[in-house]
Amino acid sequence: LLFLSCIFQMDTTQESYLDLFPLDAIVYLTPDSEDGKYIDPNKVYILGGLVDESIHKKLTLRRAQEQSLQTARLPIHEYMVKNVNTKNYHSETLAINQVFDVLSTYYDTRSWPAALKAGVSSGKGYVLRDAVK
Description:
- The protein has about 130 residues and is α/β, with parallel strands linked by helices.
- The protein folds into two domains: about 1-75, Alpha/beta knot, CATH 3.40.1280; about 75-130, no CATH class.
- The chain is about 30% helix and about 20% strand.
- The protein has helices at about 15-20, 60-65, 75-80, 95-110, 110-120; strands spanning about 1-5, 10, 25-30, 45, 70, 80, 125-130.
- Strand 1 and strand 2 (about 10) form a beta hairpin.
- Helix 4 packs antiparallel against helix 5 (about 110-120).
- The longest helix is centred in the C-terminal third of the chain and has 14 residues, at about 95-110.
- GO terms for molecular function: tRNA (guanosine(9)-N1)-methyltransferase activity; tRNA binding.
- One of its GO terms (cellular component) is nucleoplasm.
- Its EC number is 2.1.1.221.
- Keywords: Methyltransferase, S-adenosyl-L-methionine, Transferase.
- This is tRNA (guanine(9)-N(1))-methyltransferase.
């Protein structure tokens, strides 16, 4: 298990995050959350893991609900739009390194546009609203 706090202290452990932190301090990041909550430095964010989105839809959301955890998603809807592309492919599911890039850039800049630009690759089919002409 890999977890990180808002100050980006990273640890690995065999223990469950459910045993390490109070339930009300844990937020499970999942692209399927309806909550585009903003980062709270007093929370511990769980990055869901590598999931094949075509086979395991809403897996991380269901896992969080089964564990009675709060969920949140990155504010892609709020700052980005679908970009026209030849593959007509759009995905809000990011790899762990991309989520980490978004979170660390946000922590440094306090700017969601800068953070999303840093972490959401063009291959995901989204661009910042301001980039659309």
